What we know:
With 125 residues, the chain is an alpha/beta fold. It has helices at residues 11-20, 33-52, 58-66, 91-102, 120-124; strands at residues 3-7, 25-29, 68-71, 82-85, 110-113.
Amino acid sequence: MNTISVIGSGTMGLGIAQLAAIKYSVVIVDNVEKVLENSKKKLKVILNRLIEKNKIDQNTADNIFSRINFTTDLKEIRGSNLVVEAIIEDLEVKKELFKEVETIVDDVCVLATNTSSLSVTSVAS
């Protein structure tokens, strides 16, 4: 697995991207540029806190940050091995997103949802 994409740069999406970027290249997509900019700033704060607590060193923080590509262009997920959806908890919005994602990624790409309240089976349908 080389590239993991995360759609949605809120708290959950950013956390998933941060963990994935320890080892993989990550594309994080959000449809609002300002939200992406805020997520970049938030990630820097999180990484600095981890450095202060001696959980990671500066080099690790720099590597994590450098492995993440923040974008508003959903087509940037092309070539991903795994796509994790972490958007609003709205079944119809998630279904529409997955329909679009399926037109971009390869057949071997794994699609995942980060839903907490919706049926995964309903999302998959």
